[in-house]
Amino acid sequence: MGSQHKRKLSVDDSIVQSTKDKKINSDQSTPISPLKEQTPTVVHNEQEVDVKQKKNTTPIHRGKFKSRWLSKHSSLLKRSRNAQGLLISCVVGSETRALGQAQQFLLEYIAKLFPNRQSTWERLEDDLDVDESFIDESNSGDEQAKKEKGGDEEGKKDKMLEAVDSGCSGLLFLRFRVDVTPTHFIRKLIEHLLSLSSEDREKVISKTSYCSRWIPVDYICNSFEEDISKTFEQVKSDYFVNEGTLHSKIAIVSEIRNNERLKRQDIIKCIAPSLPPTLTVDLKSPDIVIFVSIFKSVCSMSILPKYYELKKYNIPSICK
């Protein structure tokens, strides 16, 4: 009897012990103080909301926006022979909104100031290293796809602008696809804006609130010393041709972004030896500025008159 009683007690003890273990495990799985654990998540969500509210726009250097709306940075070098456009600076983090404002503004004023413009769009067509018989067989299945894309290709030919990835934060590049020189466009645009009344001028400038400097780019090359020297030879033959330009006061202004290989002194060494001897160097009040901008692997070059008088081509500052 005693042994049976002991056995019953041991069995009962094991049951009680297992129930205690289950309670302990259940207690460990459930939060001890749910209020304390929920409060940090609420604060974290509030912080995320604040960060999203502070961001003006989606960053232009990542995501689907870049691949869909921007041409590759290397496309400027493939088409450097006729690549011209505008370098537009903006606040870092607001590139997408600045791009939208700049595109709408330029489409409006290119059509207004240059009504007789013509498209200069060219398609790059390379020879294929494939047997033509294979191409004929494959084309039979792709005819429908070409018909669907036909409208898009025609639309691309009619575009006046092409947004290209600059490879730098706070910097946009819009390439011209029309026979309009960027320096000529900026000169006529500034004359038009200054001819408006103050109220109308403020309305126009409010359309580009995220954009600041509008630098015209007439020449583009690779960011190597040899290419920079060759490009300046072309600039010199195109611009320094009469007595007025040959006896001007000049200065070399360079800006380097996202390129650790080149320094400002390297750019001066590429350009200064080729300058006509009749020119006078004046760094404080030059008549013209040889503006060189290096952004990533691209070098842009242009001749800018009245650079400091026009507030370094800062359109909002000019119109104040």
TrEMBL record:
Residues 1-55, 134-158 are annotated as: Disordered. Signal peptide: none annotated. CDD domains: THUMP_THUMPD1_like. Residues 26-44 have a biased composition (Polar residues). One of its GO terms (biological process) is tRNA modification. It comes from the Eukaryota. Gene3D superfamilies: THUMP superfamily (3.30.2300.10). Residues 199-305 form the THUMP domain. This is THUMP domain-containing protein. Keywords: RNA-binding. Residues 143-158 have a biased composition (Basic and acidic residues). GO terms for molecular function: RNA binding.
